Amino acid sequence: MTMRWNRALVTGASSGIGKEIARKLAADGTDLVIVARDTARLEALAAELSDVDVEVLPADLSVRSDTSIVEDRLADEDRPIDLLVNNAGFGRGGPFVENDLDVATDVVEVNVTAVLRLAHAASVPMAARGRGGILNVSSMAGDLVAPNSAVYSATKAFVTSLSESLHQELVDGGVTVTAVLPGFTRTEFQDRADVDTSDIPDLAWQSASDVADEALAAIAAGKPRVVTGRANKFLGAASRTMPTAGLRALGRQAMKRENK
Ligand SMILES: NC(=O)c1ccc[n+]([C@@H]2O[C@H](COP(=O)([O-])OP(=O)(O)OC[C@H]3O[C@@H](n4cnc5c(N)ncnc54)[C@H](OP(=O)(O)O)[C@@H]3O)[C@@H](O)[C@H]2O)c1
After folding, report:
1. Which residue in 227, 238, 81, 251 sits closest to 163, CA to CA?
2. What residue owns the CA closest to ligand 1's atom 34?
3. Is residue 1 a part of any domain in this protein?
4. Alpha carbon of residue 208 to chain centroid
5. Does the C-beta of 57 come closer than 6 Å to ligand 1?
6. Nearest to 21 by CA among 205, 194, 234, 185
7. 247: domain CATH number?
8. For the chain, which terminus, N or C, has the lower number of CB atoms within 10 Å?
9. 115 in Cβ contact with 71 (< 8 Å)
């Protein structure tokens, strides 16, 4: 890592990619504000990372009043935050017509609305200071047209697009915005999404630690977007030159187990 951050706010730090990002930032001397719903897990992480100052900020980002508390923390000029990691997110697989609409709405609230509101809350003081970073954890799913993942994929398309546009707006003023696009990553995500990944080959998987390393390297290098992992990079590059019909077939293949 070449960029030093003073204090980072990481959402979804209680497990998976967010937890690994928090650990790596702490190892580099960055103070932290860690956000998620599971307070016990956040407290355990704070105890583990005792070499830096860690604030535990429990919040359910599907609840607007909780998100507002996190927004207020980002705007607090007495304890400035120079890196926001918008990582919290979840999905729920299955045919759209069978989706529970309340859950689907929560997916949009956490993956889109909270990301948007927190990015805005962070970017205003960062732009005024002329320095900062916003790392938005998106997904390769946002670039695919995938059945049985319609809502999740659409939320990630939003995150990637928002990030790349904001990067262009803010970078000359000293604020870097980076979209991170992982593929299959070994975390609690797949279980929570209720998706069967038993037929996904080992080669396709990355560890949360490797995704975290690539994410932090990308924002340190000022990149607007990074697809993590060699296999994903190849697939991502191919999908960008592929005709729409090919892209649709790839999405159908990736989600075929849901069609059984
Ligand atoms: N794993 C993959 O294959 C994969 C691939 C591409 C992109 N991603 C993205 O990577 C990001 C991190 O996911 P992960 O793979 O690390 O999964 P994970 O292990 O399930 O972690 C998800 C994190 O988000 C938090 N979270 C979920 N709902 C929340 C809510 N309502 N309010 C606050 N926090 C909430 C969880 O904390 P609590 O439960 O404690 O609230 C947890 O810390 C997500 O944005 C996901 O879409 C994952």
Report:
1. 227
2. 36
3. no
4. 12
5. no
6. 185
7. 3.40.50.720
8. C
9. no
- Whether residue 11 is contained in a domain is answered as yes
Residue 236 tokens read as 């991502």
The two structure tokens encoding residue 47? 């105890």
What does residue 36 show for φ and ψ, rounded to 5 degrees? 180, -175
| Residue owning the nearest CA to atom 17 of ligand 1 | 189
Flag whether pLDDT at 62 surpasses 70. Answer: yes
Could you list the residue range(s) of the whole structural domain that residue 150 is in?
A: 7-259
**Nearest atom of ligand 1 to the alpha carbon of 138:** 7
Query: What is d(CA 173, CA 157) in angstroms, rounded to the nearest whole number?
Result: 25
Tell me if 142 CB under 6 Å of ligand 1.
no
Total domains in the chain come to 1
Report the b/e string of 117-152 with b at 16+ CB within 10 A: bbbebbbebbeeeeebbbbbbbbbbbbbbbbbbbbb
CA of 16 to the centre of ligand 1 (A): 7
Q: Which residues contact 228 (CB under 8 A, 6 or more apart)?
A: 180, 181, 182, 183, 185, 206, 210, 211, 214, 215
Q: Is residue 98 part of a domain?
A: yes
Ligand 1 centre distance from Cα of residue 88 (Å): 4
CA of 12 to the centre of ligand 1 (A): 6
Span 107-164, pLDDT tens digits:
999 999 999 999 999 999 999 999 999 999 999 999 988 889 999 999 999 999 999 9
The model's pLDDT over 4-48, given as tens digits with 9 standing for 90+, comes to 999 999 999 999 999 999 999 999 999 999 999 999 999 999 999
Residues 59-81, mean pLDDT to the nearest whole number: 98
Ligand 1 pocket mutation, candidates 14, 138, 160, criterion most atoms within 8 A of CB: 14
**Tokens linked to 195:** 């998706």
